[in-house]
């Protein structure tokens, strides 16, 4: 429903206009003529001083906004993404910019690592400001005001981030001493302030930025206004004081009530005259609006032409507004449809578009693969395939289900594309033809557009990594607290049995998360020399093997704890067990047993890959009497032998299990040097450690473990928080940092810390297999970890620190 417009009489409107004009004339006369004979009607001296102080604060805030804009313009002048400018050329540009902006005495371009790239003083080029407080605050905040590190000749400086906060460099501008002088001149000129009034600008720590405090020792009238917000800089905390020397004369006079009464009478008379004149002028218009003097030929009623025109104008205006709203709604709905199509493409791997069933033109396409919307859909395919597309379109319109066809792209003739056409009916019964397209393997991939399938796999991988990280954090909390419970309290036999079961369940959960990563990533099937705990891997994998490969066959695990880690990836060990289980199952045996012991094979040569090995023995139960003999061994044993040999081990098949005897085989895998976890007594003086973990529960649990091991712990909840702690105190022996933190990942924080504080040993904590190759330079610990594992990696960090 449209609201009726407010109707005002033309007489009243004219009276109001004349009254305003009369009041403006009277006020001008008072302001211009009265001051010549009598002092002005200003406020008291205290109010004048306060108004001047507030005006000065507003002028400084406006000038600071201009300074931020100047800094960004200077950054664009000095920017060199292509690396074409030499340091001398960049310094010359900086000096030329300073000559054009005399409000600044110096400027410096700072790299992300704190190196000075360009400055007016060439001696500063190449120096580092990475450890200065203003540089760290500037990278974190983006825009700051610098007063503590400013030069003595400069009242203050401004630092502006060149790009994304915390990643790109800074540009710092130092203001000239005349910076505030120009602001004061503008305020005095705008407010007509007397010379007896002065200003003083100071920082919260009483540093004077502008003005002379000695001249105001006897001042009795002053007003101070704090700087609260100045553009993006926030609150610099400055205090602006306006001070005036008392003259002994009153700056204000009592108002002349007689003059005020004359003015009100003049305004009232003008309003009355305006109302009368307006009524006389609008009388003919009212008669025309009412149709007086004009009648219709068939009726004696007056004809209101103007009223009809006004009604028609309102109707047309309403139609225009309705049409505009409908167009805006259609545009927003169209944008939402295209966004949904783009989301569908990224998830499913199929590109989708709608085709006009009659003309074959594209109606809606999120990627515009065949050209802009409205272009022929067949234009994106080679000419020889277009008749096939026409027949497929006709078949899809006539059929109830989808129609598939393989075509070649016009821009990439070697590339084949599967096109699925499907005709659907909307709510009104009209036919709508949709086309789904996806690229088929083969053809030249060098010039093809980005594939959809890798994007979908990347999304699935990120989601899986996030789930594994959260689950391993939970397991870390469980394992660390169970160990603390066992360490601090004397448990009974039943309690120890329950704690042991909970610990075994947590380790099995960790093995499940690792298998989920292997399933999604699929990038760790090769032979790698990763150190793997044999007992933990088999304990977590054998229940999965029994449920999915061995069926009802009993499984016997005789892998003792305390074996050294083997130099073989967890994925290869699982493949070994899987192939052996398949061979024993296909041979028809009644059981599966595995055992391991530390030792060296008899046939190992002097050039063996390792000085220590772990011997793994795999056997089966006897075959039931009614079970038939298998035809052969198949490729499973050959696969096992190849995996063991490529891992640097030795394989020996004693009995293949094809005959009447049970299966028996053994293999040796190279072992890593044995490291014994030595837990110090509780509350013993140890290392000073900075723990960086975004999850509060995990952070509290690990901090409790470190404190129980005798180490002093300082906690940080993010990368930025850790840098703030290090800026205040960098005397840490080691830093334990979680890899999967928001904003600043653990590896990014580690790279920053090792550059600024190389004496700190860094330990990256992450689920197994989630760290990239660039993390090999740091110590690592897999989540979830035991308290003994944490102490072992800390001992290694101390040894490396002493060696350095």
Fill in the keyword field for this structure:
transcription regulation; five-stranded antiparallel β-sheet; HisK_dim/P_dom; alpha+beta; 18% strand; 804 residues; 44% helix; transcription; phosphoprotein
Give a description of the structure.
The chain has 6 domains: 14-41 and 255-290; 44-247, 2-Layer Sandwich (Beta-Lactamase); 304-343; 349-449, PAS domain (Beta-Lactamase, 2-Layer Sandwich), CATH 3.30.450.20; 524-674, 2-Layer Sandwich (Heat Shock Protein 90); 688-803, 3-Layer(aba) Sandwich (Rossmann fold), CATH 3.40.50.2300. β20 (650-655) and β21 (664-670) form a beta hairpin. The protein has 804 residues and is of the alpha+beta class. The protein has 17 helices and 26 strands. Residues 36-43, 215-219, 248-254, 368-372, 443-456, 523-529 and 677-684 have low confidence and may be disordered. It catalyses: ATP + protein L-histidine = ADP + protein N-phospho-L-histidine. It comes from Methylobacterium tardum. Keywords: Membrane, Phosphoprotein, Transcription, Transcription regulation, Transmembrane, Transmembrane helix. The chain crosses the membrane at residues 12-37.
